[in-house]
Design brief:
Helix content is 32%, strand content 10%. The N terminus is likely disordered. The chain is built from twelve helices and ten strands. This is PA0069 family radical SAM protein.
């Protein structure tokens, strides 16, 4: 029997009010759900109890996972890296626009509230990375840390999985880039700075808005805009190549800030920049529309209309070649603004070049000395 992939919108899944500190209060069902549920009053006050429980702030749950592998190969022709590492699935930052939210569907969890409250921690990530890099078949190439979910999200302060991964990369002298919204990357400067001196690392800070109120609503548990700019400055002053990602660009919301964000990042020490228009794959579309209805009702229709202009009349365009740029006159205008601003500010658009010549395979066992 074919699966029913409709997204249910029954009252069971909808939250009338936003939850403080969460990007979405909606436990939206995922596209692999085979059943649609509805509320039922059993005469024991169940509905009243559920309504009361909805107002309790949801706690973050950490689910430990023994990953079978940690390095993922890239097959997409429009992505500028070959391998990626994501120490976590799900992200407590709660960015409502996050394109990675639908990945929780594969875990039979909601891309909405579950994505930011049920975090999968790959506790053996460093061990799996060590095995991969030690294999004679492995050849070093461009690798990015934190491509789907933030490697320095809040739980990293306690678990240290990302730091353990960076330690292995440092031991192997394997170049890497990372993208983050967190100031937590400063903790690992003792590892990152020596890599920078060998031209083996670059860091990108994602700065979506300079407006702290808008940032708080879009990305409720990420670092404030000013804190991210301070991290750019700290990294630059330490000699670490640093760039800024102004992504996603949301029409009429953070889009008017594009040039100001680039100026602030350049002043703080960034030397590279890129931006990507808003993408709304799968369940992200209804989640973002629900967020607009709650937080930006006056702009909602204009935002979605302009997005459709750039996405072929749809919420999302997954095609290679256009998914990261959009299409049409408005997408072209954004690209022109980005190009002119980066030229004026001296911000490069290409990735940092790395030195792969010093790569050395780590031992398969921690502390074991290599014979070669």
């Amino acid at each position: 029997m074919p699966r029913d992939t409709r997204i249910a919108t029954s009252p069971l899944y909808l939250q009338a009010e936003a939850l403080k500190g969460r990007g979405s209060a909606w436990a939206i069902p995922h596209r692999f759900d085979t059943q649609e549920r509805e509320q039922y009053d059993d005469g024991w006050g169940t509905l009243d109890q559920q309504a009361s429980e909805q107002h309790l702030p949801p706690q973050t749950e950490i689910i430990e996972e023994q990953a079978k592998r940690i390095v993922s190969g890239n097959q997409s022709p429009d992505i500028g890296f070959d391998f990626s590492i994501n120490p976590y699935r799900g992200c407590e930052h709660g960015c409502i626009y996050c394109f990675a939210r639908p990945t929780h569907s594969y875990l039979n969890m909601s891309p909405g509230l579950d994505f930011e409250t049920r975090i999968i921690a790959k506790v053996n990530a460093a061990e799996r990375l060590r095995e991969t890099l030690a294999s004679p078949a492995y050849q070093p190439s461009y690798l990015v840390l934190g491509t789907a979910t933030d490697a320095y999200q809040p739980i990293e302060r306690k678990l240290g999985i990302t730091r353990a991964v960076v330690e292995v990369l440092t031991e192997a002298r394997h170049p890497f880039s990372l993208v983050t919204k967190s100031s937590g990357v400063e903790r690992d400067l003792d590892l990152i700075v020596p890599m920078a001196q060998r031209h083996q690392v670059s860091v990108y800070l994602s700065v979506t808005s300079l407006d702290p109120e808008l940032s708080r609503r879009l990305e409720p548990r990420a670092a404030s805009p000013q804190r991210r700019l301070r991290t750019i400055r700290t990294l630059a002053e330490a000699g670490v190549p640093v760039g800024v990602s102004v992504s996603p660009i949301i029409p009429f919301l953070n889009e008017p800030e594009l040039e100001r964000i680039l100026e602030a990042a350049a002043e703080a020490g960034a030397t590279r920049a890129f931006s990507i228009p808003l993408r709304l794959p799968w369940e992200v579309a209804p989640l973002f529309k629900d967020w607009l209805a709650q937080h930006e009702p006056a702009k909602a229709a204009r935002i979605m209309a302009r997005l459709h202009d750039m996405r072929g009349g749809k919420d999302n365009d997954p095609r290679f070649g256009s998914r990261f740029t959009g299409e049409g006159i408005w997408a072209e205008l954004l690209q022109q603004r980005m190009r002119k601003a980066t030229q004026r500010l001296g911000l490069g658009r290409q990735r940092h070049e790395f030195d792969f010549s010093e790569f050395r395979r780590p031992s398969k066992v921690v502390g074991q000395q290599s014979l070669f």
